[in-house]
Amino acid sequence: MENLQEFTSTFEATVGSYFPAKQPYSQVHVLCVHWEKNDIFPISEIERLRACLEGRYGYKAATLALPNDDTRELRLITEIVDFVKQYSTVEDSLIILYYAGHCGRNKDGLAEWAAFEKGGPTVQWHIVQQLLFAATGDVLLLLDCCFASLIKKGQKSKGRFELIAACGMNAWTPVPGPLSFTSLLISELPEHATEETPVHHDFARTKQTGIKLQHLDDLSQPRFMQKPTGYVIFRASLSDDPKGRELAEWLKTAPPNNVTAIHIEAMVADARRIQNLVGLVQGTQEMFVKGSVFEKLSFPAKQEIVRAFRNLDTTLMTSSRMADDAGLRGNSEAVKGALEGIQSTLNAACAAVETPVLTQLGQGDFQEAYKNEVVASTGTSAAISLCQMYHGIYSSPEKKEISRDLVIVPAKKERIETGTIDGSTVIVETYQYEEDPSTSRPYEETLEQVQKMASILCHPKASTLHVLPCLGFYHKKVEHSFGVAFRAPPYFNPEKKPITLLSLYSKEKRVALSHRICLAAKLAAALDGFHTVGWFHKGFRSENVMFLPMEAPRNNISAEPVDIAPTFVAQQGSIDISNPYLFGFEYMRMQDAGTNLEADDSLERDLYRHPDRWGKPKGIILAEIAFWQPIQKIVEVQETEVLRRSLSGAEVLKRLQSKCNSRLPHQVGHMFHTTVMACLGFKSATVQMDAYETQKYYQENIRTRLEAAVGKV
After folding, report:
1. For residue 330, is pLDDT > 60?
2. Is 75 within 8 Å of 67 (Cβ atoms)?
């Protein structure tokens, strides 16, 4: 372009519109992709772009080096699926996929990425790109490659899908350097004109661009959920942490198939942030001084925090030394061991803070805890917030009732239904209620509980709780019921029904022990999370554990749908056993208020609670998973016993323990057997313990043991 002013105007009209004064997103994540071995060497520009996006705009970024071997396409699919599932579950989110490398037409004239200009490995971008249409929030592509606009259109029910391309679909673009698209993007306006200008396309909508890039707003602004005064927010980043980046880059040289670059960078960033606090917890003179919120913790709790932080510090230093060893680059065993070590010690450090803060501090101490750097850096602030919401210390000002007119569900009257709300796919759980004969409406306390239940379920929660994001509830007056709507996760196939764990016992006769241990670990972690914040999920049983059939979106113009099953951790048909979702929240304990919701007093349901105390869940479900049978079959409940309710708690416990001791050691091994027995003996083992000691006992003897066994069988 000969006229610099003309180029500047063109750039401002396209890319310039992406930098407004107001930021419309609550979270923005970036995945930068390049080839591990290539002939254009874009890594320095990628580092500059990351620094710009993380430093100037407050976004979170990760870098993926595509391997040049036969795993390249599966690795890209796995990364994008995880990227969408982790970071595009809400509508006010934005994910950005950046690519620097070669692109051209394959034999069918469709886009394929290439490591080299001539010859070498390729990936079929026109196929993989379809995975991004499953994102709930907005999607922006930044493609610095030739033929960048060669994109297949698709369908996206919510949000936008837009592209800033370095050139048109039949054009070339400069290689990395002062005149490259990335360099111009970093500087916003180029210093020199080139023939090709950035090209913007909206592949999901026809209206003018709506994706805007700007520094993220402070999450304490009014349009976000209100946070308590002094709430400390951390956005972990490795951009200004060279040692952390070196460690993350080494871990990415040979990760297990289902461990992604975005997970590795997030884990290392979290761990390094806590490692920087190790000096603070070395002695009571700093962290546990008089007047500190941690002063009120018990001596064993303080010891555990110091021990856990030191263990994490040692693990990171050991892993960093391994990363410096050139001989260990690409060593899958060394990388796997380091990943497991960092993850386990990171989890332990976070639990060491969260457990005593929630079990030993009073509600009056939480305000001060929010301001504490250690509390914030371990993620404990979010758990405190959920605890306060659950116990009614503060509530969301947002109304959670949804207009019935917006909800479209099939007239099948099933407890779990799939439908849509304003075009978004939802999963609805229906709760029946008793009608107040004096008003022909639900009892007032019933409505109050549903409103509170919806508010709690809509509150942000840790992913380890395995609860789908809740949108609110609606009243089905004719059916005398309420529907609580949850947002379906990306890649959920609404044409297939959710599957309960209870039905899976009979549908899938053979499930690998490794899959069952993985499932048990996930549910044990969820139960730990619920109880730590004081949330007692009384319906914790196999009929309330759901698996959602998953597959890539099928666009009408896509002849080659992507198979995402290989990305599952524990594949069983179209579901991932390692990714359960919990329902049945009508039975969660809420200040012991009466509700007039569907009663929960059947013998079949009582069997899931600890036999010594009907009403408190104690992981009977773990025994089911070990046997891969429902509890009724394990303890051989007869029909007459059900009808007469003649089965005592003591008899249930006796039968269950006998079955476990006689069959489980041979069927599932010593670890799983003893963990189930520890769960069954939980009450007697913890009867003299306080809340902190009880929770620690559960973590050490049940949750941690199961998590340590994942992937080892």
Report:
1. yes
2. yes
Give which of 344, 204, 163 is closest to 267, Cα–Cα.
344
In one-letter notation, the amino acid at residue 513 is L
Q: Tokens for 495, please give them.
A: 């044409």
Asked if 146 and 159 touch (Cβ cutoff 8 Å), the reply is no
* C-alpha separations of 201 from 15, 164, 165, 245, 519 in Å: 11, 7, 8, 33, 42
Measured between alpha carbons, how far is residue 434 from residues 30, 417, 449, 592 in Å?
49, 21, 13, 18
Provide the whole-model pTM: 0.86
Task: List the domains of the chain with CATH numbers.
Answer: 4-202 (3.40.50.1460), 242-390 (no CATH)
Report pLDDT digits (tens) over 182-235: 988 887 633 322 333 345 555 555 445 566 666 665 443 333 344 444 444 444
Give me 122's structure tokens: 């390729």
Cβ atoms of residues 94 and 210 within 8 Å: no
Run of H or E residues at 685: helix 682-686
99 three-class SS: strand
- For 504-570, the DSSP string reads HHHH-S---HHHHHHHHHHHHHHHHHHHHTT--BTT-SGGGEEE--B-----TT-SS----GGG-SS
Residue type, 495: E
Find tokens 């099953």 and name the residue. 565
Query: What's the CA gap between 520 and 294, in Å, rounded?
Result: 33
Cβ–Cβ < 8 Å for 413, 483: no
Which residue has 């109880």 as its token pair?
A: 531
Residues 176, 182: contact at Cβ < 8 Å?
yes
The span from the CA of 334 to the CA of 328, in Å, is 7
Nearest-CA neighbor of 709 among 666, 664, 674? Answer: 674
Place of tokens 């698209």: 181
Tell me the C-alpha distance between 431 and 598, whole Å.
7
- In what side-by-side order are the strands of the sheet with 102-105? 102-105, 111-114, 122-123
For 143, the 3-state DSSP assignment is: strand
What gap in Å lies between CA 350 and CA 130, rounded to an integer? Answer: 37
Using the 8-state DSSP alphabet, how is residue 98 labeled?
E
Which amino acid does the sequence have at 345? T
Residues β-bridged to residue 31: 62, 97
**Are 616 and 541 within 8 A, CB to CB?**
no
Query: Is 121 within 8 Å of 72 (Cβ atoms)?
Result: yes
Task: Tell me how far apart the alpha carbons of residues 659 and 638 are, in angstroms, rounded to a whole number.
Answer: 16
342 vs 188, which has greater pLDDT?
342
Least confident of 39-53, 258-272, 399-413, 497-511: 399-413
Tell me the pLDDT tens digit for each residue of 560-595. 678 888 888 888 888 999 999 999 987 554 434 444
CA distances from 490 to 85, 87, 588 (A): 6, 10, 27
CA 618 to chain centre: 25
* 204 touches 141 (CB < 8 A): no
| Rounded Cα–Cα distance for residues 241 and 691 (Å) | 38
